[in-house]
Amino acid sequence: MNGLNERDRRALTLLLAAAAIAMAVHFWPEDGAGDVVEVASIPQLERRVQRLRQIERSIEPREQVRKKVAAALTEREKGVIRAETAAQAQAQILQIVRRVLRAQTPPVDLRASELRQPRRIDEQYGEVSVQVTLDCGIEQTLNLLSDLGGQPEALGTVAVSFDTANPKQKTVPARIVISALVPGKLLPKKEDER
Predict the structure, then answer these.
(1) Is 180 within 8 Å of 157 (Cβ atoms)?
(2) Is the dihedral of CA 89, 134, 150, 103 positive or negative?
(3) How high is the mean pLDDT in each 10-residue block of the chain (194 residues)?
(4) Which CATH class is domain 81-186?
(5) DSSP states of 95-133
(6) Which member of 50, 115, 141, 169 has the greatest number of CB atoms within 10 A?
């Protein structure tokens, strides 16, 4: 600094002071930008540890209950018809009905079948139905209804109606509506659910 005149020394001093202020402003932490470290006393920390241990102890029983409920739901949903579309689910119901009809003694012929309109039960499940028409004896109809209820799929008889009996063949024309549960994703959502 010996070769500098008085004016240059003063300018250099002011420049260094301005640079120090600029660096302090630039690198100074902003309000709220840093992490706030809470200073807690030992009793507060002990209470917090106790509370966390209570929460930890309550997690395992809840997890066990959740697993039991999930297993029970899986067991109950075994009878739900699994298909990609509602029409495929109805076709599965018809296959089951035909299988049960063939197993009757003597086998029962299916005269006609009609696919009914699927309907949504709730957000998770829907119902698909088929109506079958057949001629058989009244005891065969009762056996058929019993056998349909004994299938692994959860089938239900919604309606049974009988027409005038044929006295020569001792048969009764019957119309049976059979339904089953399907996953709700197979059916369109109701207008109020959208």
Answers:
(1) no
(2) negative
(3) 80 90 81 59 88 89 90 85 91 93 89 92 90 90 90 90 84 92 83 56
(4) alpha beta
(5) HHHHHHHHHSSSPPPEEEEEEPPPEE-SSSEEEEEEEEE
(6) 141
Query: Where would I find the H helices in the chain?
Result: 6-27, 42-76, 86-103, 138-149
SS3 (DSSP) at 21: helix
Q: How far apart are CA 186 and CA 131, in angstroms?
A: 20
Please classify residue 170 by burial: count the beta carbons closer than 10 Å to its beta carbon, then call 0-12 exposed, 13-18 middle and 19+ buried. exposed
Q: Could you tell me the two tokens for 10?
A: 């003063």
- Residue ranges covered by each domain of the chain: 44-79, 81-186
- Tell me how many degrees the CA angle 45-49-55 measures, rounded to the nearest 5: 145
Residue 137's alpha-carbon distances to 1, 9, 105, in angstroms, are 123, 122, 11
